[in-house]
Amino acid sequence: MPVKDKRELIKTTLRELFRISSMYQRIEQMPIPLGSDDEVSTREAHMIQALGENRKMSVTRLADHFGITKSGASQMVKRLTGKGFLLKQQAAHSNKEIELSLTPRGWQVFEVHEKLHGRDFNTLINGLTSFPIFQITTLSVLMESIGTILENRISQRMWKGKNF
Fold first, then answer.
1. Predicted structure pTM score
2. Cα angle, residue 150 at apex, residues 101 and 86 outer, rounded to 5°
3. Which of 73, 90, 131, 142 is deepest in the core (most CB within 10 A)?
4. Do 9 and 1 contact (CB within 8 A), yes or no?
């Protein structure tokens, strides 16, 4: 289908972004097998990856990292701690703050996910290197713009009817 004008191209691009976003949400729910009938969801693996890359994080920092609520991060931490992937310890610098770190089992998940994630990430990087820098810059600006809109929507909690 030929593109009629600039607005139509923008709409087509946004529809594709929404389609990709839906697929990504489905992938986040998919299990990653760990062997011996054990598995984690991709979402869980991403939390584990963030902790592995940053070594120690608080629940608040983890929530900020993923753009989710502190409550949502706490629920995930509780689940991952229960599965034996995370340790919760009192922060050395604060009596109120809890630091999260990976257990040996958490590091195993980190390594498995790194292999899967690394393969996909390298495929993306290799594919995008053929694009001219101005196209990559444009993509970057587009992603920042969309991210800002989504952050504003989350902070305003528009879906609760406050701003309609």
1. 0.66
2. 10
3. 73
4. no
Sequence-separated (6 or more) residues with CB below 8 Å from residue 114: 49, 52
Q: Are 105 and 84 in contact (CB under 8 A)?
A: yes
* Distance separating the N- and C-terminal Cα atoms of the chain: 35
Tens digit of each residue's pLDDT (9 = 90 or more) over 35-79: 777 788 888 888 999 999 887 788 888 888 888 888 888 999 999
Q: What does each C-alpha distance from 4 to 10, 139, 141 come to in angstroms?
A: 11, 21, 24
Q: What is the CA radius of gyration of the chain?
A: 19
CB-based contact 34:109 (threshold 8 Å): yes
